[in-house]
Amino acid sequence: MNKPRLVLFIAVALSGLTGCAGKSVDSFTLEVDLPAEFRFIGGANYGPATGETCTLPNRRGKRPERKIFIARYKPVAERVSFELPLTEVIEGCPTVLWSVDFDIYAKWGKRDTDVGGDIAGFSISDPSNADRPEMPETGVQELHKQCQWFFRTVGPQHAIRKILECRSLGAVSPLPRLMQREQLAGKTLRMVLTVTDREEPAFGDSWVAVPGGWKRCKGKSFEDLDAFCNGNTTDFKPIKMPDGRVCDVYPTCK
């Protein structure tokens, strides 16, 4: 290759590298830290960008404006990662990512029905003058939610069932309801889910704390499914444990 052509080739190559380096990042990384036996189904929801006049058709079944991402149950804790575009052209319509939502599920027993769930999510806004927290210099924003099991009884045998609730930890970067799109570009948003061992009754005035756990108030009779204590903290009813045992105290059966 003669010298003029070599110089031209190098110039073109360098200009290509400069163009790539200057290209705006149009996605962000979503990471989720899951405890053991947790899973979720997430959805990234897109809509026409501000100022666009195009519309997306209403339809059943396939929805290209909603991208689904799934993390399945694992016997051990894990971190999953997804790359989510901030903009997409869908059927010729320029769209932007407007929100991300999660259906969170966890197993509390061995049966297929021994599952509880909760929801989480956040919206994404265009740049504004609103006072929003800045992304850390590391480029990774951690958002913490703590999950807890709440127990109750159901049916004529007063069988134990559990309800899952996942709440933001205010002291440790709670999950915000609104993020700015420009702050997410090229960054990592990490949702950290933890689960506490502490269980509590799902409804008040239904259980009485005793050594070894909780006793279920009798209510008006054994057949009373609501069975509120109403000041009676001496009369109780047996409960059916997930493994089939009939016990007086949850969870120790003492």
Describe this structure in words.
The strands form four sheets. Strands 1, 4, 8, 9, 11 and 12 form a six-stranded mixed sheet that branches. The protein is mainly β and 254 residues long. Helices cover 9% and strands 46% of the residues. The chain has helices spanning 3-22, 181-184, and strands at 27-34, 38-48, 66-71, 78-85, 87-90, 93-107, 115-125, 140-154, 159-168, 178-180, 188-195, 200-201, 207-210, 213-217, 236-237, 239-240, 246-247, 250-251.
What descriptors fit this protein?
mainly beta, 2 domains, 2 helices, 18 strands, elongated, disordered N terminus
Rg (CA only): 26 Å
Helicity level: under 10%
Percent of residues in beta strands? over 45%
What's the helix count? 2
Classify the secondary structure makeup into a structural class.
Answer: mainly beta
What about the largest sheet?
Answer: 6 strands, mixed
Low-confidence region ranges: 3-24
The secondary-structure element order is HEEEEEEEEEEHEEEEEEEE
Task: Please indicate the count of domains.
Answer: 2
What is the mean pLDDT?
A: 85
Task: Tell me how many strands there are.
Answer: 18
Taken from the alpha-carbon principal axes, the silhouette is elongated
Could you give the distance between the termini?
Answer: 88 Å
